[in-house]
From TrEMBL:
<keyword id="KW-0813">Transport</keyword>
<dbReference type="Pfam" id="PF00005">
    <property type="entry name" value="ABC_tran"/>
</dbReference>
<dbReference type="GO" id="GO:0005524">
    <property type="term" value="F:ATP binding"/>
</dbReference>
<dbReference type="InterPro" id="IPR027417">
    <property type="entry name" value="P-loop_NTPase"/>
</dbReference>
<keyword id="KW-0997">Cell inner membrane</keyword>
<dbReference type="Pfam" id="PF08352">
    <property type="entry name" value="oligo_HPY"/>
</dbReference>
<dbReference type="InterPro" id="IPR050319">
    <property type="entry name" value="ABC_transp_ATP-bind"/>
</dbReference>
<dbReference type="GO" id="GO:0015833">
    <property type="term" value="P:peptide transport"/>
</dbReference>
<keyword id="KW-0067">ATP-binding</keyword>
<dbReference type="InterPro" id="IPR017871">
    <property type="entry name" value="ABC_transporter-like_CS"/>
</dbReference>
<dbReference type="InterPro" id="IPR003593">
    <property type="entry name" value="AAA+_ATPase"/>
</dbReference>
<dbReference type="GO" id="GO:0055085">
    <property type="term" value="P:transmembrane transport"/>
</dbReference>
<dbReference type="GO" id="GO:0016887">
    <property type="term" value="F:ATP hydrolysis activity"/>
</dbReference>
<dbReference type="InterPro" id="IPR013563">
    <property type="entry name" value="Oligopep_ABC_C"/>
</dbReference>
<comment type="function">
    <text>Part of the ABC transporter complex GsiABCD involved in glutathione import. Responsible for energy coupling to the transport system.</text>
</comment>
<dbReference type="GO" id="GO:0005886">
    <property type="term" value="C:plasma membrane"/>
</dbReference>
<keyword id="KW-0472">Membrane</keyword>
Length: 606
């Protein structure tokens, strides 16, 4: 027990009203957080970790929940301990944002789309701290610099939709830190972030915690982040706390079977050393499955040469094009049949745009795309539609890519209906077979997307992508929002399908441990260019470009004894990809350091 914890949750029980009566979201959970301490709460979605944090903020009532038992003692700045479970909503309004800061998981929904970033950052300072407009704006600028947002003065005048996901998340973090809270609740704050920004934000939170003595309650399902951040760990499973202990103890001697399964499902960077081919992970409970490497073939399926995609920036009275965003600049690569090429890099480096340009969902300015002998760039609308049967995409957010009003069987059947490949009974059988393939029960066929968890929705997206038996699947951050164990299952599923059906993947991701697990070849992107490309072993075990090395350094390792310190992270701010009209960048020049291992020698800006 701590002497005087800042927050103490004691036998908390939270209930929700459902059609089938009342159910408990969290039952009999107790833990405490002391000053200057980070307590990580881990578990999968549905384990009750976010419910406990929303209860502390007393926001759970707005989400249909009710605190049915237990106490939540919070030590206030003035006035001493207070039981938040019985506190008045007016008192809670003063505490929220001032004494308890919260970083939400989904930055787009945590920000108000109709106000500028500057207005949202200064609001809390003016309400809770009584600052004048000038003082609040100066503090907002200082916070933006603290979370390392490039061109902060310009960003303060922008709206949330004008920022990338990583930048929005940094704004949300700046808002939570604005009033220097006593307790900071971080709910999956780095899930949607790149490795480098994640490393910086974790270091930032760690530094602020040390400087200000803030207590941090950190909710995550990423065990590498837990190893990097936690002093103590609380493991939750189905609404119950199943294990608690110091971070080294949990990682080295887990007691509960669930904790052991959770740790087994974490892909660890360096696990694939000395293996030349990707292979599925060994999961607890499925050890008897035979693990076979996936060789693929050496026959090229997709050839991309000189792909260039730019977006116009309009301005002035006549909305003329005043500049261009150079999203993808002179990119070339080849993907063989049955193999995986991964593109890695930070958000805004152009990897998603490159994936979308292949399917011509975004029109490239220049370049050649050849899929199995077909010149994709030369196709008219009707021929392009036919060519897309061979190329499918799995998007990052499965909920946004599914239709909320169609049941799942219809969604999986839709591509077949559109292209007229199957009909009637044959189509029903194929849908049922695809459900089996992605390991979802056939009883789910009548359900709707909102009735599934994130991992199950992502499986539906995979089943739909497979419906037309494509040759190439572009997976854009397809597993980044999933829990560790679900992520491991979905990755294994994708690799098993690749082995069975000879699929080729363009795998777009910022998770280096996942990329190491699934890739045959890896390309590292920075500011729209590929700065290094080669086999997985070459790029991961012998990185040559300065940026690739910085990226490798930033990856948190799931081992609490090998933590990164802030001095390890020396990232240069990312220059702007926006250039005036008429600007022509120099072409990319590569040097072959080993057979098949190329490094950019012309100036990449890093």
């Amino acid at each position: 027990m701590l002497d005087n914890p800042i927050a103490r949750i004691d036998r908390l029980r939270v209930e929700f009203e459902t059609k089938d009566g009342r159910i408990a979201g969290v039952e009999d959970v107790s833990f405490e957080v002391g000053a200057g301490e980070t307590v990580c709460i881990v578990g999968e979605s549905g384990s009750g970790k976010s419910v406990s944090s929303l209860s502390l903020m007393r926001l759970i009532e707005y989400g249909g929940g009710e605190i049915a038992g237990g106490r939540m003692i919070f030590d206030r700045r003035e006035g001493g301990p207070l039981d938040l479970a019985t506190a008045d909503q007016d008192v809670m309004r003063d505490i929220r944002g001032d004494e308890i800061g919260m970083i939400f998981q989904e930055p787009m929904t945590a920000l108000n789309p109709v106000f500028t970033v500057g207005r949202q950052l200064t609001e809390g300072l003016r309400v809770h701290r009584g600052m004048s407009r000038e003082e609040a704006e100066a503090r907002a600028l200082e916070l933006m610099k603290q979370v390392r947002i490039p061109e902060p003065e310009r960003r303060l005048k922008q709206y949330p939709h004008e920022l990338s996901g990583g930048m929005r998340q940094r704004v949300v973090i700046a808002m939570a830190l604005a009033c220097k809270p006593r307790l900071l609740i971080a709910d999956e704050p780095t899930t949607a972030l790149d490795v480098t920004i994640q490393a910086e934000i974790l270091a930032l939170m760690d530094r602020l915690k040390r400087e200000t003595g803030t207590a941090v309650m950190f909710i995550t399902h990423d065990m590498a982040v837990v190893a990097q951040m936690a002093d103590r760990v609380v493991v939750m499973f189905r609404g119950h706390k199943v294990e608690e202990g110091p971070v080294e103890e949990i990682f080295e001697h887990p007691k509960h079977p669930y904790t052991k399964a959770l740790l087994a499902a974490v892909p660890k960077l360096g696990e694939m050393r000395s293996k030349s081919l990707p292979e599925p992970m060994k999961l607890l409970g499925r050890e008897q499955d035979e693990i076979k490497p996936i060789p693929g073939t050496d026959r090229p399926l997709l050839k991309v040469e000189g792909l260039t995609t730019r977006f116009p920036v309009k301005g002035g009275f006549f909305r003329r094009t005043v500049a261009n965003v150079h999203a993808v600049e002179d990119v070339s690569f080849t993907i063989n049949k049955g193999q995986t090429l991964s593109l890695v890099g930070e958000s805004g480096c152009g990897k998603s745009t490159a994936g979308r340009s292949l399917l011509r969902l975004v029109e490239p300015q220049a370049g050649r795309i050849e899929l199995d002998g077909t010149d994709v760039m030369g196709l008219g609308p009707n021929m392009l539609r036919e060519a897309r049967r061979d190329m499918q995409m799995i998007f990052q957010d499965p909920f946004a890519s599914l239709n909320p009003q169609m049941n799942l069987a219809d969604q999986v059947a839709e591509p077949m209906r559109n292209f007229g490949t199957h009909s009637g009974k044959e189509m029903q059988e194929r849908v049922a077979m695809l459900f089996d393939r992605v390991e979802l029960p056939r009883s789910f066929m009548r359900r709707f997307p909102h009735e599934l968890s994130g991992g199950q929705r992502q499986r539906i997206a995979i089943a739909r992508a497979l419906a037309l038996s494509p040759k190439l699947i572009v997976a854009d951050e397809a597993v980044s929002a999933l829990d560790v164990s679900v992520q491991a299952q979905v990755l294994n599923l994708m690799m098993e399908l690749q082995a069975e059906m000879g699929l080729s993947y363009l795998f777009i991701s910022h998770d280096m441990a996942v990329v190491e697990r699934v890739s045959h070849n890896v390309g590292v992107m920075y500011l729209g260019r590929i700065v290094e490309i080669g086999t997985r072993a070459a790029v991961f075990e012998n990185p040559q470009h300065a940026y690739t090395r910085a990226l490798m350094k930033a990856v948190p390792i799931a081992d609490p004894r090998r933590r990164k310190s802030e001095k390890d992270l020396n990232f240069k701010p990312i220059p702007s990809p926006i250039h005036p009209v008429g600007y022509e960048p120099e072409p990319n020049v590569y040097q072959e350091v080993d057979p098949g291992h190329f490094v950019l020698t012309s100036d990449s800006g890093y």
